[in-house]
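Milestone M4 deliverable, item 7.
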Amino acid sequence: MQVVVITGLAQGIGREVAKLLAASGNVVAGFDIDAGAVGSLKSELDEMRAESLLEVLDIRDRPGILRFRDQVLGKFGHVDAVLSNVGIGFFGPFEEIDLEGALRCMEINVIGTAAIFQAFVPAMRERRSGKLVAVSSLVGEIPFPFESIYSASKFAVEGLALSMRYEVEPFGIRVSLVQPAQVSTDFAAKIHVLPPEGSPYRERVRRFIQRDKELIRTAPTPRQAAAVIAGIIESERPAVCNQIDFKSRFFLKLNRFLPRALRDRILLGQMDIRV
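Output delivered:
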């Protein structure tokens, strides 16, 4: 039995991870900004007779995160694993994006991950045991067109995790990344908006969105993705970098070994945006 903290646990992959871990007898603590979804998840966990502590909280509320940490440690005594799952997408041609919106994306995706990890590292260090797991993305290694800010946020999450790993591993704290490509959710659909008429990017963005929709139809389900993530959390020695499916593993390996010109050609062809 482990005590696991999950951010963004009320919907999508986070919700499925919470239910899988609870079904295995683990204690689930976490928060989400969606009060209704938090309430319904709490009801499901109660029906499973799972021990939990769920709160409604914005990942940008750093004093709130510290209060939540104190609640968790006060109730359960320790935390075995923290899953930083909360995140938002951001889409659009770089020339046309709203930088205030981009700042919000970076605040949630990057500083949100930093805040939840930093909150629990001291207790893990003193106990000399713990796991920090960050949900990144394929675009944390392979930058995608029209996702410059989102890619930047996931590159930053990976840099954060891989850098801090050297600092905390001597204290028995393991750090892992999860790097999914597409998952069959409405995550992308919420942000995919065509540029206005007259935009020089409109036609390529239209083709990109259409291709992305096709890929999502055959992508792993949130439940399948959650099973992989739950396995990482429950593993005694999880790998540093973890993928959800074969496609992610395949493209990441190609990205690491192929010449850049060939990688670019494959990406542009895969997403149907060659000029």
